[in-house]
Amino acid sequence: MRVVARDAFPRRVRFVAGADVSFDRTSPMLFAAVVVLDVRTLEVVDSATAHAPARFPYVPGYLAFRELPPVLAAFAKLRVTPDLVVCDAHGRAHPRRFGLASFLGVALDLPAIGCAKSLLVGEHADPARARAAHAPLRDGGATIGSALRTREGIAPVYVSVGHRISLATARRWVLRLAPTHRLTAPIRAAHAACNRARRQH
Prior knowledge:
alpha+beta, globular
């Protein structure tokens, strides 16, 4: 299945999941977490973690081969199926236009958004300082994502299509899910769950 870069998800989104992976550079173990939130309240309704030794080396641009297995293992433990997934990773804003957010969306056949903290590829103008300001992220003449300001005067996040969603809709969802912080609530919750799992291991 190829990436679908248009809106193809339920009209009513009830549950949104955040996915993240954490690791200690002194250990081969990877820790993945998926946390499902109620869209209306942003309260946690389900969560799952998984850990496994890395089977693929750390190679920039190929992180999906390293991180996807434990993330899928965490998803398999969920009791609540999300309607939308937000990843602390890139989707089309990737050298091969298929980052972890796209791998995950296609593998699960779920709408997925890449929402990364740092730039991997491409160039963009500096968005205006206001919340919701955005600038096209371009590479090789193509628009591959957006630099989106989720808080006034704070560094933008990098939003891109993962699967079954358009870029404009992805931006709207990122803003809705990040009402007070730079990062979305699902990603922040997944990041905290990853760190707890790593400390408890």
